Amino acid sequence: MRAVGIAVFLGLLAGAWSQVASPVLRPDCDSPEVEEAALAAQDYMNSQLTHGYKYALNQIDEVKTIPRPDGGENYVVEMDLLETKCHVLDPMPVANCTVRPRQETKVEADCDVVLSKVGGVLSVVAYKCKSEPGMCPQKSKITV
To answer: Is 32 buried (19+), middle (13-18) or exposed (0-12) by CB count in 10 A?
Structure first.
């Protein structure tokens, strides 16, 4: 089952990269548009959690944008998230949550996310996160 999920994710990435022979752009990781996309991905992934603690954006490692034929664009973002002290059922916004310190077995997640931006609206198409073995009680998740 995991292999099927990975194959679907890679297929989405390949499809995003091959659209109409569009050029792949590499904007600055700290540009406002890229940060907006990363925060949208963070919020989406936190909304999908059913147990454990919320994750906060730590850093954006790499980003690619691919123009779409409809005038929108796709973002392929590699980012790191850190576990917070806020439980997923806590209504507090993740921006107000404290990141769990290392001595409390902090979980770090490396995530690859594909987002679509059409008409100024960002939406997550797929994501895959992994963390160090034995550190995270949740399995990697691929959503399509």
So the answer is: exposed
Reduced to 3 states (helix: H, G, I; strand: E, B; else coil), residue 137 is coil
**Per-residue pLDDT reduced to its tens digit, 3-51:** 555 555 555 555 555 544 568 878 778 888 999 999 999 999 999 999 9
Name every residue whose Cβ is closer than 8 Å to that of residue 72 and which is 6 or more positions away in sequence.
Answer: 116, 117, 118, 119
Structural domains in the chain, sorted by start: 2-143 (3.10.450.10)
How many of the other CB atoms lie within 10 Å of CB of 115? 24
Q: Is pLDDT of 84 > 90?
A: yes
H helix intervals, 1-144? 2-18, 32-48
What is the phi/psi pair of residue 64, to 5°?
-130, 140
The fraction of the chain above a pLDDT of 90, given in percent, is 59
Sheet with 142-143: list strands edge to edge: 53-67, 73-87, 108-118, 121-131, 142-143
